[in-house]
Design brief:
Layout lengths: L1 E3 L3 E3 L13 E5 L12 E7 L2 E7 L5 E8 L6 E5 L2 E6 L3 E6 L4 E6 L3 E7 L2 E6 L3 E6 L15 E5 L15
Antiparallel strand pairs: 1-2, 3-4, 4-5, 5-6, 7-8, 8-9, 9-10, 11-12, 12-13, 13-14
Protein name: SHKB1 protein
InterPro entries: SHKBP1/KCTD3 (IPR047876), WD40/YVTN_repeat-like_dom_sf (IPR015943), WD40_repeat_dom_sf (IPR036322)
């Protein structure tokens, strides 16, 4: 839905009927001047390990961008800029890049917490480490085409990072 001050709430998009229960939803309406052109608003829905991503037009119609599979149950679904992120506590992250139109799955250490700051995705993991990925640059390692996940901090006692809150000025 969208709110118009003169007429209240109005339906902005209705997906086709899905054969599964929607467990997670993510909405992105902040992509300005992006590579999607008129498709600057996106909505994603997830159930178990499947994710459907739609681009929304101003007239209320939507077009399916794709169906993606994480391989494990999706526990968090959100946008960082115009990149769609799916995470699982099992240690998998999936990233859909709006520029390259590429879906990348990466195995990492089991994830306990996450936060986003600017274009950075930060992951708090059960081994006491905080990892980050600059999802705007969508960095891939040359040798194996894996997502470049960088360790930012490691707790000497390896206590799990159970909460993250990041603020960049």
């Amino acid at each position: 839905p969208r709110l118009k001050e003169t007429s209240g709430w109005q339906q902005a998009f209705s997906s086709p009927r899905l054969d599964w229960v929607i467990e997670r939803v993510a909405l992105n309406a902040k992509v300005l001047g992006g590579s999607l052109g008129d498709h600057d608003k996106m909505v994603a829905a997830a159930s178990c390990s499947e994710i459907i991503l739609w681009a929304l037009q101003a007239d209320g119609n939507g077009s399916e961008i794709g169906v993606f599979h994480l391989g494990v149950p999706v526990e968090a679904l959100f946008f960082v800029g115009n990149q769609l992120i799916a995470t699982s506590h099992t240690g998998k992250i999936g990233v859909w890049n709006a520029v390259t139109k590429h879906w990348q799955i990466q195995d990492v250490v089991p994830i306990n917490s996450y936060d986003a700051a600017g274009t950075f995705l930060l992951l708090g993991c059960n081994n006491g480490s905080i990892y980050y990925v600059d999802v705007q640059k969508f960095p891939l390692r040359m040798k194996d085409n894996d997502l470049l996940v960088t360790e930012l901090y490691r707790d000497p006692s390896e206590d799990a990072v159970t909460a993250l809150s990041v603020y960049l000025t």
